[in-house]
Amino acid sequence: xxxxxxxxxxxxxxxxxxxxxxxxxxxxxxxxxxxxxxxxxxxxxxxxxxxxxxxxxxxxxxxxxxxxxxxxxxxxxxxxxxxxxxxxxxxxxxxxxxxxxxxxxxxxxxxxxxxxxxxxxxxxxxxxxxxxxxxxxxxxxxxxxxxxxxxxxxxxxxxxxxxxxxxxxxxxxxxxxxxxxxxxxxxxxxxxxxxxxxxxxxxxxxxxxxxxxxxxxxxxxxxxxxxxxxxxxxxxxxxxxxxxxxxxxxxxxxxxxxxxxxxxxxxxxxxxxxxxxxxxxxxxxxxxxxxxxxxxxxxxxxxxxxxxxxxxxxxxxxxxxxxxxxxxxxxxxxxxxxxxxxxxxxxxxxxxxxxxxxxx
Length: 360
Ligand code: G
Ligand code: MN
What we know:
Layout: E1 6-9, H1 41-53, H2 55-68, E2 73-76, H3 78-99, E3 103-112, E4 118-128, E5 134-135, H4 137-146, H5 150-165, E6 177-181, H6 191-202, E7 209-214, H7 215-220, H8 222-235, E8 238-244, H9 252-256, E9 261-264, H10 266-270, H11 276-292, E10 295-298, H12 304-312, E11 317-318, H13 329-335, E12 345-347, E13 352-354
Helix pairs in contact: 1-2, 2-3, 5-6, 6-8
């Protein structure tokens, strides 16, 4: 057996019994993990003493195991522990970051292809650490999801975004739709109530808020999520399916869920100029949206050629680096007041695409 071993077992794993509490000397949270495998007393003994010697490491290892192998009995080597330890540190930092306002919201505008009118903004969190480094959401969101920090993080993003965007107006002085990403891990019985509280607390109109959930999240726990989103819909909140076209694309939830918008995934958009099959899929999604009365926005539009293909396919809305990168609230607020964010247009009367010199 590895010298640096931790014994971890999710509570309630099949075939295992919990030890009586008084006999369980390992000093970590009993709700979270650890139990005894009666058939392996020696292993348990060794693992327990290792865990008792370094409970922080044991807890981190348990979390690692729980995320990857729920319900399993696992032994961790030192290597895994290094990763788990790093994650534990990051988790502590992330909790502190939320409390200390180290998180900032950036916004990325969305535009109507027909005339460049800004139709929405997507709120995206950035974590600026005190040492000057920036942590991208693709690093800290999965971490937040695994460690339950996601609830606090999601609540912060929603409240902050509503507070910031409520006075923003587009060039036609209509209010801008605010899109906020929601993780499946945030959704529980109280989620709709929490959203309602944020809307009331900030005075943000519910019909201007669009919550984005990924397709894969819908596969994992469709029933609970659909229930919750029905409540949200009844409150007037809009619903979008993020990264559409990459998950299992079970179309069945489109008829069960009150979806307002599909976000065509950036990987599909990326391949539009090289893969005829992806063009066919994009065309099908755009047509499907039209049939169902659901808006379709293409995300991750990076080149003029992609833009042109989308326009030819009848896509009506775009978001991506070609038009604007996610940026600070001051910059994006100025952007949405002008067509195409104020970028130079290579416009003709028929063709109104952004100029190549403007990609930043
Ligand atoms: O999963 P979701 O679609 O919410 O992802 C949004 C992420 O995509 C953000 O991190 C944002 O910075 C990034 N993003 C936005 N526009 C583009 C783009 O044009 N290209 C690429 N590669 N990423 C983009
Ligand atoms: Mn999104």
